[in-house]
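[Discussion] Sanity-checking designs against the backbone

I'm trying to build intuition for which residues belong where. Below is a structure token string of 152 positions. I'd appreciate it if someone posts a full sequence so I can compare it with mine line by line.
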């Protein structure tokens, strides 16, 4: 059996974004199926380009996808999974999809995204030891805040 790599996450609008890649066939585009309660509901070809995949050595980088969830899944939540259609290998699953995020959590996540974006800008100044230490401290603080928010 070939080793399959992939990951996915679901945004607040109910769209799953992810990628799927098989190193045994590095330029092949994988057909991804959305399973809900064990039944294949939607299919997408993982063929969108992502620079980060190419930079990480995952083929030519054309292995990403986006997949909107059906309204029935969004309204009630349901066990769901993503699998490579040809091999049947499941590479992502959730026991229950729920999209009604707590308002405080949503605000905290937005603030964390802003902090991460600012840190990405600051990375360009890492050749200066003091800036490097400051960015490292900010990243540790953001990680601690994320753990705190996730525990509630």
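Best answer:
Here's mine. Compare freely.
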């Amino acid at each position: 059996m070939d080793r399959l790599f992939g990951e996915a996450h679901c945004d607040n609008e109910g769209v799953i974004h992810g990628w799927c890649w098989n190193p045994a066939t590095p330029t092949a585009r994988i057909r991804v199926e959305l399973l809900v309660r064990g039944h294949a509901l939607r299919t997408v070809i993982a063929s969108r380009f992502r620079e980060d995949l190419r930079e990480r050595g995952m083929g030519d980088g054309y292995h990403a996808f986006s997949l909107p969830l059906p309204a029935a899944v969004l309204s009630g939540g349901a066990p769901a999974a993503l699998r490579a259609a040809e091999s049947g290998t499941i590479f992502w699953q959730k026991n229950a999809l729920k999209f009604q995020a707590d308002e405080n959590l949503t605000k905290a996540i937005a603030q964390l995204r802003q902090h991460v974006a600012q840190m990405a800008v600051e990375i360009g100044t890492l050749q200066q030891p003091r800036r490097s230490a400051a960015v490292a401290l900010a990243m540790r603080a953001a990680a601690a805040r994320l753990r705190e928010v996730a525990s509630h």
